[in-house]
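so my prof wants the structure for this chain in the tokens format not the other one, which i didnt know existed until like an hour ago. anyway here's the sequence
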Amino acid sequence: MKVTELETPALIIDLDILERNLARAAEYARANDLRLRPHTKTHKIPELARHQLLSGAAGLTVAKVGEAEVMIEAEPPELLVAYPVIGRRKLERLMAVGRRTRLMVALDHLLPARQLSDAARAARLTIGVLAEIDVGLGRVGVTPGPELAQLAEGIARLPHLTFEGLTFYPGHIRGVDEDAIRALDQAGERVREALAVLRRAGFESRVVSGGSTPTLFHSHRVRDLTEVRPGTYIFNDRNTLATGACTLADCAASVLVTVVSTARPGQIIIDGGSKTFSSDRHLASPEASFGYVVEAPDAVFTKMNEEHGYVDVRRAGREFSIGDPLRVIPNHICTAMNLHETVYGIRGEQVAEIWRVEARGKLQ
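here's what i got, hopefully its the right format
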């Protein structure tokens, strides 16, 4: 099948770019003695998780139990749930996953640790636990200090759990300029403080897990890091481009759309709106803009209804007709992927792969 034969809107993935992205990350990890444990929340497709494992990933990361239930089909040697799992039913489901691979869970409080311990005891499993610390994002994670030591001590006392080390997410760092590098160095100091706190309490950290796509290729600056967990790197997107963490040539995913109306001068309507694209704003601009139009870089994707995308083409430098195909790189590919049931892997103008987004909507 040719790409031009696809019904739109269709999320397409350039496989040559994807494979370069995977190879580059794997080589960086090897060169810096880091384990690569990619976060599958970006692609949500077991076959792509297998590609990551075959490209050198040592394990996988998921957020929710539902994602873990899907990604176990990729047969990872180890699976990290980078999210506190709370509630008996969810933990029972997680234990079923734990019978098929080694599990680690990140948490920042003893309540979910106790629940995890009870579930692991009932399932006769041993689960690894990473204590999450906050390095500046202000979302989850304890502050390095007495609270961290108490958390580690509490985990170590609970049956069927093993304290494995630390995890953190530097999501507040969204660039690679001097300020961003300074912030990453500060995050590294927080990690060092946390490890010192744990050593004084008698704990060594086998795992120090962290990182993100924007900071990926600077992860070696966090000297105590043992593994990195990028997600978006497999595709990249317009906001990754805005941070300077990739180039346009590194953006593997786009949405193929069709021009459906040219009724208003200076504007076209495309057949993708808020049910097709992410509503995340563009990091590099204060004006509303929901994607990069590949064939018309100076066009501005200004507004979305559910099924309509409004594109200002007054500065586009070209004419448009109803039926014209366009490719739009979303601002945030992770949320866009979660809106699509099927995606298409392409090589040149040929569709080479068709994948179901198996973990789409797995929010529980």
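also thought this was worth mentioning. Residues 178-200 form the longest helix (23 residues).
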